Amino acid sequence: MKSPTKKQQQLLEAIQEYSQKNSRAPSYRELMQILNLRSPASIWRFVEALKKKGLIASTERAWRNVELKDIAQQNVHPQSEATIPIIGAVSKGKVPELYPEAEKWPISSKLLPEGGHYYALRIKDSSFLNEFLLPEDIVVVEATQEVAPGELVLASTKETIIGHFFDEGEIIRFRSNPYSQPTQVKVSAEEVQVWGVIVYVFRGYRSGS
Fold first, then answer.
1. Does residue 74 register a pLDDT over 50?
2. Rounded to whole angstroms, how far apart are CA atoms 123 and 3?
3. 166 forms bridges with which residues in the sheet?
4. Residue 55 contacts by C-beta under 8 Å, 6 or more apart in sequence?
5. What is the pTM of this model?
6. 114 and 198 in one domain?
7. Are residue 65 and residue 95 in the same domain, yes or no?
8. What is the DSSP string of 160-200?
9. Per the domain annotation, does 207 fall within a domain?
């Protein structure tokens, strides 16, 4: 097994220190802040390289979560549950469909950093395949206007947009997943409303499943 590079070792140490202090693995966004990186893509590349070297593993079926393998086996503290509301469903090219009454959805409280406000939306159809989102997927959104360049966000104009956010002054650019067939949408900054940052994706969730 190849040894980690200097930057990969810094990432490993950051994950280990955070996990020991918080009893959970850090998110990509939290790792960006710890390591003073601006691009989620940089963290993603480091994480994928460490996965290939067998030093870390994905957990919780969450696209942003990483965990050291030895820590993953410890299960030091029992999981406690919280609930967040699933407020509606989204399709590309249409306005969000909001439910008359939000569905309460259980989630581990360890996945939700304190101080944030969260809600969830269901992916209604296959229109977001370029973002690797499938029908019945659940996206968990942190309701915030503080968005770093490249973060995956939920936004709307006259229709729903899910994409990586780039503020270009009077224009906001949204890019689909660069590892699919990337597409871009450019809209006036005055017309777009950012709903928040997508922090987790749960695959194929259905009520009662």
1. no
2. 40
3. 173
4. 4, 8, 12, 68, 69
5. 0.58
6. yes
7. no
8. EEEEEEEEETTEEEEE--TTSS--EEEEETTT-EEEEEEEE
9. no
| Sheet containing 118-123: order of strands | 97-108, 81-90, 118-123, 138-142, 193-202, 152-156, 160-168, 171-175, 184-188
Q: Is the domain of 130 the same as that of 175?
A: yes
Q: What is the rounded CA–CA span in Å between residue 144 and residue 197?
A: 7
Whether residue 186 is contained in a domain is answered as: yes
Task: Give the count of domains, the chain.
Answer: 2
User: Which residues does 115 contact at the CB level (< 8 Å), separation at least 6?
Assistant: none
**For residue 91, which of 56, 121, 61, 127 has the smallest C-alpha distance?**
127
Please report where in the chains the tokens 């922090």 appear, as a residue.
199
- 39-53, 116-130, 136-150: lowest mean pLDDT where? 39-53
Band (pLDDT 50/70/90 cuts) for residue 160 is confident
DSSP code of residue 14:
H
Return the CATH number at 42. Answer: 1.10.10.10
The per-residue pLDDT for 60 is 41
* Residue with token string 């999981």: 79
Provide the residue range defining the domain that includes 64: 6-72
Amino acid letter, 108: S
